[in-house]
Give the backbone structure.
Amino acid sequence: MKRIAVALLLSVMMILPGQAQDFLKGKVLKIDMSDTIAEKGSESSPFNLDLGLPIGGLSGSRVSLLSLERALEKAAKDDEIAMVYLNYDKLNAGTSALEELRECLARFSASGKPVIAYGAGLSNGSYYIASVADRVFMHPKGSGTLNGLGTTQFFLKDLLDTLGVEVQLIRHGKFKSAGEMYIRNNMSPENRRQYQELEESVWSGMVEQMAASRGVKTEDLRGWIAGLELGTANTWIDKGLIDGLKYKDELEQYICHLFGTTNPDKVKRIDIREYASKVKAGSGDKVAVLYADGEIAREGNQIAGEKFAREVEKLRKDKSVKAVVFRVNSPGGEVVAADIIRREIELLGKEKPVIASYGAYAASGGYLISAGCKKIFVDNSTLTGSIGVFGMIPNVGGAVRKILKVNVETVGTDPHAGMGNLFQGLNEEEQAWYQKEIEGIYSDFVNVVVAGRGMTYEQVDEIAQGRVWSGKDALVNGLADEKGILLDAIEAAASEAGLSKYKIVTYPQQKSFMKSMREDSRKDLPLVRTVMEPGFKAMTLMPLVTFDPEFVL
Amino acid sequence: MAAILAAASVFAQSSKDRLSELEKATVEEDTKPAKQEKEFKLFDVTGVSEMGFGLNLVKEDQFAHGIKGNKSSDFFINILELSFNPTKWTSITLGANLDWTNYAVGPANYFHGVPDGDSRKLDLTPVAEGMNYTSSRLHVFSIAVPLALGLHVGSISLRAGAEANFRLKSNVKYEYRDANNDLFTVKDSTPTGLNKFALDYFASLNIGFIGVYVKYFPESISPAIPMHCFTAGIVLNAR
């Protein structure tokens, strides 16, 4: 006991003012880039090679969220890194990516190493991430405001009526808002409520975090936002939301001061992309991160059902992969394609643990393909759920008659031979048939969630109806299990597989630069694809729907 | 135990508190220049990293051939270098060099081509009596692929290795005066009989961007001409 007391006393004495001279040692880890922070980076591009030429950060270049998370995780423990400098003006990322990055910065800061944020313009996203820093500085002439989240929707019914185009929307789920823009001139009450609550759920979480980081009351911050009280740099300082105003050279001097020098050349810096490139993938058995990023379709450049299923099959057969993290960032898509993927994930789950980790969206088809995973990790701002289905059949016969003065007639062998034809709408019987099909698909969808989440049909039906939930609410209603970033999901997957040491590999595997260039050059907007592909396709501005019909989740 | 607790107490301090302390600390004006550190890369690719110029010297027993050490020269330029740096102090490099070597002889012997079927074969023979040769040289262009081990301490680096030498082109030239004192110049392009491939050895010592190098050619340039040279000279590097 005596010895412990003496040791404690000695350590307390060592904390006394003498410690203040313990200046920072190491390098500044810079997050100062205009690259888009995406699920998958564009690291295979030769433009990312360090040729010593000033062509880094070309518009369109992406850096992967996983690489940044791993870089920050390593930096927190790395003696070579003393602090993080974040330029919040340039960050280009969605809300979910910002949330994960924010969490990583918070963990870095918790290791005792400071995070300094600087910029000139603050907005919802940039302040959300900057507020986690230990010090937030702004250019003296900087400005910005927080104004909350909002959704703007267009409604085309009047326009389509004028043109003579009719859109028949068949759906299950009062909240299934996809397609409403074609059949209404305003938001339905359900849709309005849904968006209001969704936005409030996400935004309130963000405001709470910002307020907590800055030591201000949440209600005060909400009041300032509602009253538009934030604007010029001084208004931010007055409210304690930033720590000071500095010009760039003053900031340089401030950082030098932390390192105990006045000479900027003595403060070494390293860009986070360069640091991330040196983070080893690990060793030993593999944990695969399988990305489902984009819309789900039978074919195409995003999540192409058959092609993706083959990747999953490869993972299943690869004995060196012991666990899988299914990283989903998809707003949904075609039913059949989604089910093909779901089935392969189910088979995969029988052989090795599969943990789902959601990015910005895992909604509708994106939720379907992952509902059966062992555990689901979400961010607060993830948009998920949307358990519902719709089909959309446009009828341009009126437009063609009205505008082009072309009349169209169909002759068939059977009463419904021209069903779904672009130039005639569905009659009552045909609508009823579609509705029945949709109900069947909806029921199947709910049953997938029932099986995957261990809930009853009634429980799922209540939270389904096409409603979109935030990740925060999904944790409450049972659609998700844990709040956590991608790294947490990887850790959980490794733990499920009993791995203390592992190597992280990503799937689908990176294409060579030349191959991705060839494929990217063929990527068209859905509208253009409609015109170019043979056969009739419904013209929509959303995930492609054909008249075959192809139902869309 | 105290040290451990003290260390733990530092890390227990939040980053905000640490910043607050550092902000209050006094920092004196720092006028000392920063040390320039070269960035460490595990693999590196560089172009035009080195060029050297040296004089060809010969083994003593070759003096009989009359090789003029002060006019026999060697110039090379590195056009590509791949390096693998397992540590900050060591490297393994593989390169591609363009090499121009000039061998000057005289006055007792001269390079020339002798008829050999349809071609002319390189030879080095004594001049005919009464002939007055003013100069004679053999010029060889080769591509060399050096493989070297390097040791680097600060700005000093020592490299040594072997070089695969592919002799691609050569030509000879000699000048002589006849009995009327008229000057004649004879050129012979690409005579045969040259050893197309040779394995040579080299070493260099650099301090900063400048250094010295030696190269040893254990094989003769031609079976007909037993001539073993080594080159020593200055090298400039941009690594």
Observations:
- Residues 91 and 122 of chain B are 40 Å apart (CA to CA).
- The two ends of chain B are 47 Å apart (CA to CA).
